[in-house]
Amino acid sequence: MQREKWKDFRLYVITAEANHPGRSLVDVMERTLIGGAQIVQLRNKTGSRAEVLEQARSLRALTRKYGVPFIINDYPDIVLETDADGVHLGQEDLPIGEARRLLGPDRMIGISTHSLDQALKAEREGADYIGVGPVYPTDTKPGRKAVTTSYVTEAARHVTIPFVAIGGITLGNVDRVLDAGARRICAVSAIVGSEDPAAACRSFLSRIEAADAAQAAKTITVNGREERTTAATVEELVRQLGQQNKQLVVELDGLIVQRALWAGTELKDGASVELVHFVGGG
Known about the structure:
InterPro entries: Aldolase_TIM, Beta-grasp_dom_sf, Mopterin_synth/thiamin_S_b, Thi_S, ThiamineP_synth_sf, ThiamineP_synth_TenI, ThiS/MoaD-like, TMP_synthase. This protein is α/β, with parallel strands linked by helices.
């Protein structure tokens, strides 16, 4: 899988440190994939290398079945051994440049960051994405001070590579994280620790999609009346208004748009649109 294909991910799920009673790691992570997880990371800070390798082989097979990228935390050698899609590094781990030399040009390299300076440094050094967090205090990062949503907003304004908000994010606070500018969310306990990981994934994706739609909405004036719309083109606006089967003349910001050009004419925030409906008569 090519690195360029990974940029549109929205929900990133990481394995929990502990096994779940009555459920295997593979079973739990398969439930997340059924629910829509778009990247899976294996994170095991306490197990032996042999244990991590065994888990990686199982999850590599699972993620390949679902066509989802598979990332391994901390072990570039196991990435190569299992043909995983990439590695995730911490600030004290292998430098990004060295990881790139080991893994080659096609695998993804992500790195955890806790400040804008770290984020911009990772971007300069060639990271494919960064983790921004922990946004809230979390047991998965004991002793790590929360960066709060203020860092999320800084990242949204200044970082050009994909970033994923992580750390203590739940369905109870994810809307605040999204409002701060995040468009990619990572959750651990709130998903893999839930009784129904698939349902938890669907709920997170629903919140993310709602935030995307709200961000895409624009305010325009239609026949003198202010409207909110997610239409990207004149054709989409006409369709949303239910006018697609009528004989219309469309005027956009004072210029008439020929019907053949509606699909390719962008509708920008603040646009003024006049729709004139012609009715035949005798």
